[in-house]
Specification:
single chain, 860 residues, Isoleucyl-tRNA Synthetase, domain 2, Ubiquitin-like (UB roll), six-stranded antiparallel sheet, 28 helices, 35 strands, globular, RNA-binding
Length: 860
RNA sequence: GCCCGGGUGGCGGAAUGGUAUACGCAUCGGACUUAAAAUCCGUGACCUGUAAGGGUGUGUGGGUUCGAGUCCCACCCCGGGCACCA
C-alpha cells in the first residue's frame, strides 16, 4: 500500500496518502456512536481569488493536529470545512468582467479545495457547505424570517457612504480618507432605507453569556467594551416653555445633579428646532448644517481636538433645585446614545469642563476633591457638597450612596428612573448589492397587508413599515414553504444608480403579483391571477451582508443535507456546539457577537438546545512576511503554501508552521527555519529505512531498547499528548526532535519503539507517518491506530540531579536518590569540591531544601 | 487618553518562584569525501583569566524572597483594541 520510493520523495508520498484517505472516507464522523464526541471547528474561509495563504494554513494545521489526535484518543470527531462565499470581491470581479459572480466564486472554491486537500487536512468533505448554495441560504433566509416574526428586524433610514461618480453605495472599508478606494472619487453620506436587526434587545444576555464561555480574556473584554453597559438614571428636566414637554437626559452620575449648570443636545435632536429662539436661529441652523456635513469619523477626530457649540436661547428647569439652566447644542453629544441629550456638570466631567471654560459657563463643585487634587474636573469619589434643596440632601454622602438617594428621590417625584444604557447599536443588516442572500420579503400596500394578515399566522405583532412620499409600505414575508428565494440573473452587476442594488433593475423579478399564501409570484406585467391571495408587490432589493451566512454555519455542519430543518434535533443534541473554535482575533467582536446573537434567538425559539454557540475559543496568530511586516501582495512578501509544498512537502510545511512559535503568537516567516524541520523529517526517514528503501538494519525485532530510550519514548508520548491538548505544538515538536536525536545515537532500536513514535508523529506529519508505518509493517493505517499509552511508572525517577546553591547561587549539582533527606544531601553538598570552597570560613545560617530540586545553603 | 498583550543569545523561541537560553536556525571548528552536497561530532550571552575558576546578565529603576525571566510598584519601548458613549 505504501509507495516504493527509496528516498523521502514527498511529491510521491503525499498525494498517495491523500488519495488513500479520500477513497477510504477516513475522516467521516460516525452518525451515532458510543464514543465521546469532539467537534473542532475552524473559521471557514472566504474563497478569494488570491488562494489560500499560510495564515489560513497555520490555524487549520493546529486544528487538524488536534482532530487527528482526538480520533486516536477514541473520540468521534467532527471536523468540517466550507466556504463563506458571498462577498464584495466576487461582485467587483463580476462588474469588471460581466460574468456571474457565482462562476468566479466556484472557480475560487475549486482552487481552495485543491489547496486544502494538498495540505492533508482531515476534513470531512461530505459535510462541505457553501453559503451561496440555495440549499444553504434557504436556512439563512429562514432564520431571518424567525427574527422578522419575533419583531427583531425593522427598517430605518440610515446614513451610508454614497459615491456619486460610481453611482454606488460603498462599504466603510471601501472609503479611504473620504475618497472611494476605487478611482479616488469623493463620497458623501446619504440616508438610505436599511434593514436593521434589534441586537440591542439581547445586550444583557450577550453580556451575561460571556461569563460561561472559555474564551481569551482579551476577547471577552473587547465584547464587553463593545456592548458597553452603563448604569445610571434617566432624568426628566422640565422646559421653561412648558408646551414643548420635557427634556430627558441620561446620566451615570445622578449624584451630581446639583452641579448641572447647562444642558447640551445633539445637533440632530428633534427638540432643537422648537427650542431655538429667533435670535439664535441662524447660528443654530448653520451649526446643524455644518455638523450634518461631517462624517462620523471627521466629527470625532475634529471635535476631539476642540469643543464647539451654540446656545439655543431656551432654558430647562433642574428637577432637584428648580435652577434655570441654559440649553445648548454641541456635536460632542451624540444622538445615537442615551437620549441624545445630557445635563452638563463641568465640575465633575472633563468634557463639560472644557466646554464650560470655552463658553464661560458656570462651574459648581458638588463632589469635594481630595486636598491634594490639582486637576480641573474631578471625576473621582468623595463627599457631596453644595447638594441640598428642599427634601433632598446629598451633602456628605459619597458617590455610590448619593446616586442611590438621588434615584430614589427622582423616582418618588416621578422626575426620573434608574436606567441601564448600552453602547451597542442595532445591527445594520442590509447591503445595496447583488451578491448576497436576497431578503425573503415583499413590500405591499397597507390595505393589501391587512388582507394578507388574515391568511398568514406568521406575521410579526406589529407590521414593519416605511413611508415614502407619504405612502406607507408594509413588509410581507415570504411563507417558509417558498424558500429559498434565489437571486435572479441580471443584465449588469452595476448598481441601479439610485442607491438600490442591481436587483432593482430586474423589473420582471421586482414588480410582481404575489401570492400571500404560498409565496408564488408572476411578473406584474402579466394579468393578475384570480384569487384573494394575489397581491401587487415589489420585492426587497437589498441583500444580506456577508456576516449572515457565517452566523450559523457551525450548525449546518451537524446535518448539512437536511432538507427539512437547518439541522435535525438529533444532530443538534448529539453534536452540541463546537468544543473548540479556532480563528483570527480580527473576528473578536463582530462575527462572534453576531453569531452569538442569532444563536440566542434560536435558543429562545427552541431551535437549538444551548444558549452559547462557542464554548471554547482560540485565536491563532498571524504569520508575518520574512521582513517582519504583514504579508501583502504590494510588499511582495507573501508566502504561497503551494510553493512550499512543491519544494519541501506538506508535512514539512505543517511541522514548520507549528514549530515557528506558540500558535497564538504573531511571528515572522523564516525560509531558513523550514530547512530545520525538513531535516528532522529526513532524519525520521533515515532512521526507519535504509538506502534501499527497506527497513533500516539497526531495527531489531528481538533486542529490547536501552532503558533510557524507553523512558524517553514514554516521556515523549506524555509531553506530546499534553501539549496537543493545550495547543502548544511548538514544544511537542521540540520533544519529538529530542527523541529522534536519541534514536540516532542508539546503535540499535526496536521496531516497536519506532512504530510507537510514528503514532505520535502522525497528527503532525500524517503522510510520512503513514508511509513509514506501512513500510515498517504497522497494521492498518496509522491514522486509525490508537494514541500510544505511556507507562507512568517509567516516568518516575529514582535518581535526580540535586542542585546545590550557596546564598542562592548555583555552585554545583549531583545525581542523588530522590528520597534523600535534607541532612544527607547537606553532607554531600558540604563535601562537594565545587561547593566546599564557598562554605570555607563561613557559618551556616539556614538551609533551604526542596526535595528533588535544590539545596540552598545560606551562610553569613 | 483608556483597556489589553508583549519585550529572554546573532535569529525564531523554551523555562509549576528553584541549574536562564530546551528545540531549531545561523556562525565557527572538526570528521567523512579527490572535491562538493548530504550526514555526523563539537562550538555557541557578556566581562575577566593561560586555565581551573570568578563576576555580570531575561527592556529600565526599585521592592518582596534563602532564591525572581516568573510576584509587587514606577517608568520606557513595541503590538492590538477602544476612543467626546454623558
Amino acid at each position: 500500500m505504501a509507495t516504493h520510493c527509496k528516498d523521502y520523495d514527498f511529491r510521491q508520498i503525499e498525494p498517495h496518502w491523500q488519495t488513500f484517505w479520500q477513497e477510504k472516507h477516513a475522516f467521516r464522523a460516525e452518525k451515532s456512536s458510543t464514543k465521546p464526541k469532539f467537534y473542532v471547528l475552524d473559521m471557514f474561509p472566504y474563497p478569494s481569488g488570491a488562494g489560500l495563504h499560510v495564515g489560513h494554513a497555520e490555524g487549520y494545521t493546529g486544528t487538524d493536529i488536534l482532530a487527528r489526535y482526538k480520533r486516536a484518543r477514541g473520540f468521534n470527531v467532527l471536523h468540517p470545512i466550507g466556504w463563506d462565499a458571498f462577498g464584495l470581491p466576487a461582485e467587483q470581479h463580476a462588474v469588471k468582467t460581466g460574468t456571474h459572480p457565482a462562476s468566479n466564486t466556484q472557480n475560487n472554491i475549486v482552487n481552495y479545495r485543491r489547496q486544502i486537500r494538498a495540505l492533508g487536512f482531515s476534513y470531512e468533505w461530505e459535510r462541505e457547505v457553501d453559503t451561496t448554495d440555495p440549499k444553504y441560504f434557504r436556512w439563512t433566509q429562514w432564520i431571518f424570517l424567525q427574527l422578522f416574526k419575533k419583531g427583531l428586524a425593522y427598517v430605518d433610514e440610515r446614513p451610508v457612504w454614497w459615491c456619486p461618480e460610481l453611482c454606488t453605495v460603498l462599504a466603510n472599508e471601501e472609503v479611504i480618507d473620504g475618497k472611494s478606494e476605487v478611482g479616488g472619487f469623493p463620497v458623501e453620506r446619504r440616508n438610505l432605507r436599511q434593514w436593521v436587526l434589534r441586537i440591542t434587545a439581547y445586550a444583557e444576555q450577550l453580556l451575561d453569556g460571556l461569563k460561561e464561555v472559555d474564551w481569551p480574556d482579551s476577547t471577552k473584554r473587547m465584547q464587553e467594551a463593545w456592548i458597553g453597559r452603563s448604569e445610571g438614571a434617566e432624568v426628566r428636566f422640565k422646559l421653561e416653555a412648558a408646551a414643548l414637554g420635557d427634556l430627558n437626559i441620561f446620566t451615570t452620575r445622578p449624584d451630581t445633579l446639583f452641579g448641572c449648570t447647562y444642558m447640551v443636545l445633539a445637533p440632530e435632536h428633534p427638540l432643537v428646532p422648537a427650542l431655538t429662539k429667533d435670535a439664535q436661529h441662524s447660528a443654530v441652523e448653520s451649526y446643524r448644517k455644518a455638523t450634518a456635513a461631517k462624517s462620523d469619523v471627521e466629527r470625532m477626530s475634529e471635535a476631539a481636538k476642540e469643543k464647539s457649540g451654540v446656545f439655543t436661547g431656551s432654558y430647562a428647569i433642574n428637577p432637584v433645585n428648580g435652577a434655570r439652566v441654559p440649553v445648548w447644542i454641541a456635536d460632542y453629544v451624540l444622538m445615537g446614545y442615551g437620549t441624545g441629550a445630557i445635563m452638563a456638570v463641568p465640575a465633575q466631567d472633563e468634557r463639560d469642563w472644557e466646554f464650560a471654560k470655552l463658553y464661560a459657563l458656570p462651574i459648581l463643585r458638588t463632589v469635594q476633591p481630595p486636598a491634594d487634587f490639582t486637576g480641573d474636573a474631578y471625576t473621582g469619589d468623595g463627599p457631596a457638597i453644595n447638594s441640598a434643596h428642599g427634601d433632598l440632601s446629598l451633602n456628605g454622602l459619597h458617590v455610590a450612596a448619593a446616586k442611590a438617594r438621588t434615584i430614589a428621590w427622582l423616582e418618588a417625584k416621578q422626575a426620573g428612573t434608574h436606567r441601564i444604557n448600552y453602547k451597542l447599536r442595532d445591527w445594520l443588516f442590509s447591503r445595496q448589492r447583488y451578491w448576497g442572500e436576497p431578503f425573503p420579503i415583499v413590500w405591499v400596500s397597507e390595505v393589501d397587508y391587512r388582507q394578507a394578515a388574515a391568511l398568514r399566522p406568521d406575521l410579526p405583532a406589529a407590521p414593519v413599515t416605511y413611508v415614502e412620499g407619504g405612502v406607507t409600505h408594509c413588509a410581507l414575508p415570504l411563507p417558509e414553504m417558498a424558500l429559498p428565494l434565489v437571486l435572479p440573473d441580471v443584465q449588469s452587476y452595476l448598481p441601479s444608480g439610485t442607491g438600490e442594488s442591481p436587483l432593482a433593475n430586474v423589473t420582471e423579478w421586482l414588480e410582481i403579483w404575489f401570492n400571500a399564501e404560498n409565496g408564488a409570484a408572476i411578473p406584474a406585467s402579466q394579468p393578475r391571477p384570480a384569487g384573494a391571495a394575489w397581491l401587487r408587490a415589489r420585492r426587497e432589493t437589498n441583500t444580506m451582508p456577508q456576516w449572515a451566512g457565517s452566523c450559523w454555519y457551525y450548525l449546518r455542519f451537524l446535518d448539512p443535507q437536511n432538507p427539512n430543518a437547518l439541522a435535525s434535533q438529533a444532530a443538534l443534541q448529539y453534536w452540541d456546539v463546537p468544543d473548540l473554535y479556532v480563528g483570527g482575533s480580527e473576528h473578536a467582536v463582530l462575527h462572534l457577537l453576531y453569531a452569538r446573537f442569532w444563536h440566542k434567538v434560536l435558543y429562545d425559539l427552541g431551535v437549538v438546545p444551548q444558549a452559547e454557540p462557542f464554548k471554547k475559543l482560540f485565536h491563532h496568530g498571524i504569520i508575518l512576511g520574512e521582513d517582519g511586516v504583514t504579508m501583502s501582495k504590494s510588499r511582495g512578501n507573501v508566502v504561497n503554501p503551494d510553493d512550499i509544498i512543491k519544494s519541501y512537502g506538506t508535512d514539512t510545511l505543517r511541522l514548520y508552521l507549528m514549530f515557528l512559535g506558540p500558535l497564538e503568537a504573531m511571528k515572522p516567516w523564516n525560509p531558513k527555519g523550514i530547512e530545520g524541520v525538513h531535516r528532522f523529517l529526513q532524519k525520521v526517514w533515515r532512521e526507519c529505512l535504509g538506502e534501499d528503501g527497506g527497513a533500516n538494519l539497526k531495527i531489531s525485532d528481538t533486542e529490547s531498547d536501552p532503558p533510557e530510550l524507553i523512558k524517553l519514548l514514554h516521556e515523549t508520548i506524555k509531553k506530546t499528548g499534553d501539549d496537543i491538548e493545550d495547543l502548544r505544538f511548538n514544544t511537542s515538536i521540540a520533544q519529538m526532535m529530542i527523541f529522534m536525536n536519541a534514536v540516532q545515537k542508539t546503535p540499535q532500536v526496536s521496531r516497536r519503539t519506532l512504530l510507537t513514535f510514528l503514532q505520535v508523529l502522525a497528527p503532525f506529519a500524517p503522510h510520512i507517518a503513514e508511509e513509514l508505518w506501512a513500510r515498517l509493517g504497522g497494521s492498518g493505517s496509522v491514522s486509525e491506530s490508537c494514541w500510544p499509552v505511556y507507562d507512568a511508572d517509567l516516568l518516575v525517577n529514582t535518581m535526580v540531579k540535586l542542585v546545590f546553591q550557596v546564598n542562592g547561587k548555583h555552585r554545583g549539582d549531583q545525581l542523588l536518590p530522590v528520597s534523600i533527606t535534607q541532612d544527607a544531601a547537606f553532607e554531600v553538598a558540604k563535601n562537594h569540591e565545587r561547593v566546599a570552597p564557598h562554605l570555607l570560613g563561613k557559618s551556616v545560617q539556614r538551609i533551604i531544601f526542596v526535595p528533588r530540586k535544590i539545596l540552598n545553603i545560606v551562610v553569613s
